[in-house]
Amino acid sequence: MKRVLMSLCVAMMAVAAFATVPTTDQYLPALGHALGAADVNGVRPWWRGDVWVFNPSASQQASVTIFLLRRQANPAPESRVITIDPGDTRYLPDVIYNTFGYDNLYAGLRFQSNIPVLVTAESYDANVTVVNKPQGTAGQFFAALPANLAIGPGESSDLPGFDQDGIGTAGTFRSNLAVVETTGNSVTYNLQIFDGSGNLVGTKSYSLGGREVGQINTVITDVTGGTGTNERVHLVVTGGTGKMIAVGSRIDNRTGDPSTIDMVAIHLSGQFEGIVLDASTGTKIDGGLQLVIGGNVLTNFQGVAGIPCGSDSFTLDFSPSSGVTAPIAADGTFTTSVSITYTDGTNNLFTTNWTLTGARAADGTWSGTLKSDTSNGVSVGGYNYGTCNALGITRQWRSAWTGGNS
Questions:
Q1: Range of the domain at 282
Q2: Is 292 within 8 Å of 300 (Cβ atoms)?
């Protein structure tokens, strides 16, 4: 197999992918140091929030700015700065009170850092009593959500597993929804409630200001006016220029113990890398593909693929010279192409038009087709590159998020 020069310079990158990764911008939508909104079995909850920040670097100190996001627009939020040595974990108990000095306050937190760090937290009721035992706690652990998982206009997500089997705290369970805007811009959104059989049972619109935190208590009742069990919240961003993150909480009214309901989160922006496949067998073949996606637009791509020519074959790099602007359609698909003339450093050998199509799956991965159409082949140095002409080669590809923000 021969390598042929192209008129554009391309470098493929290999980046490890993780299910959960440290990052430099992330959010905890709901923590507090305050009394609960309602007595449960005659006992008022004392809500608290603890935070752990881990610096996974082996050599760099992390500087982390923590922003306090109140339940209002936050154009200039109050902040604190902490530093964490390489490999260390900083524990911030009762963070709203001890770090920021506030009592009777519910808020979200934003963490911005000079290097990627991992943030986890626990939101808990510190006023739990058990027969024949001292006062204790009951709570929920959750990880901070990276800013690049936030959804924007036209995008949606789901949170399954909400229960509200009585009005307020009268039933066995109640469920709340916490939300936060992540860009500093306002956003409007719609909540749709579906029962366990997938039937729509209610819908209601809401809004957030820039970096505003919100909480919708007993969200099923707030949206539908009634109760329900095993229900799913479908969140759709309908307007504004902002983006948002959501997290649910399912609370046992008998004990006050909450459980986290995570947003179905997929990477909609950043760098996606993958492999090239034989269209007929689906097996991996020579080559690879990298996509850059941001704001529901494919902004760049680059790849390597082989094409047969007569008794030989060639490995070709391909990429647009200055990026692309290929919109991602409402159904998650795109199509784009680039035409490249390949050379031996002196002579033009042939031109290949690469057509790239893709579709985003529900889990955020991408797949599609890569077609190469070659023309204008000439004879140079005793080799007839005209054997590459009129060959339309179609391949498959698939890729997944590997990092980066657009």
A1: 269-403
A2: yes
